[in-house]
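User: Show me an example of a complex going from sequences to structure tokens.

Assistant: Sure. Here are the input components:
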Amino acid sequence: QVQLQESGPGLVKPSQTLSLACTVSGGSFSRGDYYWTWIRQHPGKTLEWIGNIFYSGATYRNPSLKSRLTISLDASKGQFFMKLSSVTAADTAVYYCARDHRVNGTTHWGQGTLVTVSS
Amino acid sequence: DIQMTQSPSTLSASVGDRVTITCRASQTVSNWLAWFQQKPGKSPKLLIYKASGLESGVPSRFSGSGSGTDFTLTISSLQPDDSATYYCQQQSFYPWTFGQGTKVEIK
């Protein structure tokens, strides 16, 4: 059974970089059927799609975040990553990593990690 | 970006009721529409993919329909465990976007 687990600091200072990792276990990381996705949810709000990465390294990033966002992966470690620079309080959210199947969509989610941006 | 509009925002229904949630896209997304269920403090759970495909393990009382711009999620007989917030998401055009959510409460 595929499992995903987010990790990273829960508190980030304004103007700094938010860095998160997602560790994937129990499944093939390199199959071309899958996209590896980041999604966030501001407190009490709906979900916001951040971006995804294919096993080849190709990425799609939300244009609203693109200038600040980097998504990468390390297949050998079964991990993918996101870095969001120049954060503000508006980036405070629960961040989820997830696996998308090219047909079935977002079938597997991590448990989510709350990141608070505050001095 | 494609805007996804759900209605209603909240609904209250009794156990056994048939419940319908609608989702409208600001432009056609073909059938690239998913429905998720989210309970407080939990990750979203995929219910329906490609507008009408029932995800493995999801009870058959959940069903989805629609194509183009108009979609529905139906719960044929509401159960206490169905109390949650439901989101639609289009996966036709980047950036993928979600509806604002529909909170379902049990009377």
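The lines above are the inputs; the final block is the predicted structure for all two components together. Chain B is about 0% helix and 50% strand.
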